[in-house]
């Protein structure tokens, strides 16, 4: 490997990161032991001081104190903070997007798209602030009214991952704030600068609309910081995005103290391609879903389940497109695939390919490292591997751009193959037959939280609830009625009569 400087060397990137933080209104973080590295060169952008146990305790206490007043602020008034945040994000879209690129390695279009997603969820939350509806139900007792009301829950702890360093935080925070909750955010230690910038923008938004900036707290560091957040009884809800392994640790610890969990964990997403599918449309969707973000999305397409009659021409199309994908510095124009986040991800990808080949797989294209970016930068060509069966490695999620190709003869068998993995996040079918589409969407079809027709597995809109089943965790974020996760429900019975009838006709006299 070469350690020759890239077109934009690390010194330039370090200076640019500092400039972006200043433009975003964020002071330079205090230097410390937490190293901030860019996957573009693999080198250090700087350091910052991780939160101590005392810092975390103090942040949770400040959030808990702020909640006492925040919960009684009218919801449309609370939304003013979120509305102003959306305005600031729109003003700084390009700058925050570039900071996402520096820390996460996303190409510019995807990084800016992530910031746009933040703006979209803020707009959704502002509208939601006037729609936190309860219900009125008929009472069996005369002179009584029976109803449901929804109330703020408390402090919400948000643990986010590196691959969507700002959007997932916004999904949680925008909804939590309009629901009357306060937030303590623990971002990935791989992307602390974007978190620092977002925290500054939100607190600025609160000050500018005359509301309490203490409703949002930021803590930085590794797993020990997250563990303290998970274990603290003052945190009513822990919303955690990450690996299945992480979720397996978080969920029982929160449950042990009778807290709530909202989990968004692994995805091993598949697309079924039927003989009637438009192969040109399918291949375009598949290439983006499988290779976008260098395969580092929870909704990345990892399994392609193709009818035997169309597998040849479809794989030829995909392989031809893969060979044209430009892999390189995500700050450069025309680049479609940026780097993996670190060497651990690269080694996991190579190990998965070796296991797949040992299981009888055939490497159609890709998988090799692209050199010339430095010893500590990991750029790879997205890989396509044709598999004879759904082996153990195919059933696992490898967070890298590997697309496993499987074949089927019968749609029922394809759906069984599709569902035969522990994860259940996103799925799709490509077909021009309504019966096939409806079969896939039926109760005995895809077992995922997201099921699409004639689009890929990634790129969900904020209007729909986002989340999955099985080892994906069962949580729902973003749109639809996901707001209910951030509130507590109360059933109210009001007696406006002068009598005292009991329910179920019970007599106690």
Automatic annotation (TrEMBL):
Q: Please name the InterPro entries in this protein's record.
A: Ald_DH/histidinol_DH, Ald_DH_C, Ald_DH_CS_GLU, Ald_DH_N, Aldehyde_DH_dom, ALDH7A1-like
A Pfam family cross-referenced in the UniProt record is: Aldedh
The EC number(s) given in the record are 1.2.1.3
Catalytic residues in the record: 264
Coiled coil spans: none
What keywords does the record list, in alphabetical order? NAD, Oxidoreductase
Gene Ontology molecular function, alphabetical = aldehyde dehydrogenase (NAD+) activity
Give me the segments passing through the membrane: none
Which Gene3D superfamilies does the UniProt entry name for this protein? Aldehyde Dehydrogenase, Chain A, domain 1 (3.40.605.10), Aldehyde Dehydrogenase, Chain A, domain 2 (3.40.309.10)
Where do the Aldehyde dehydrogenase domain residues begin and end? 32-489
Describe its assembly.
Answer: Homotetramer.
Q: What family classification does the UniProt entry report for this protein?
A: Belongs to the aldehyde dehydrogenase family.
Protein's name in the database: aldehyde dehydrogenase (NAD(+))
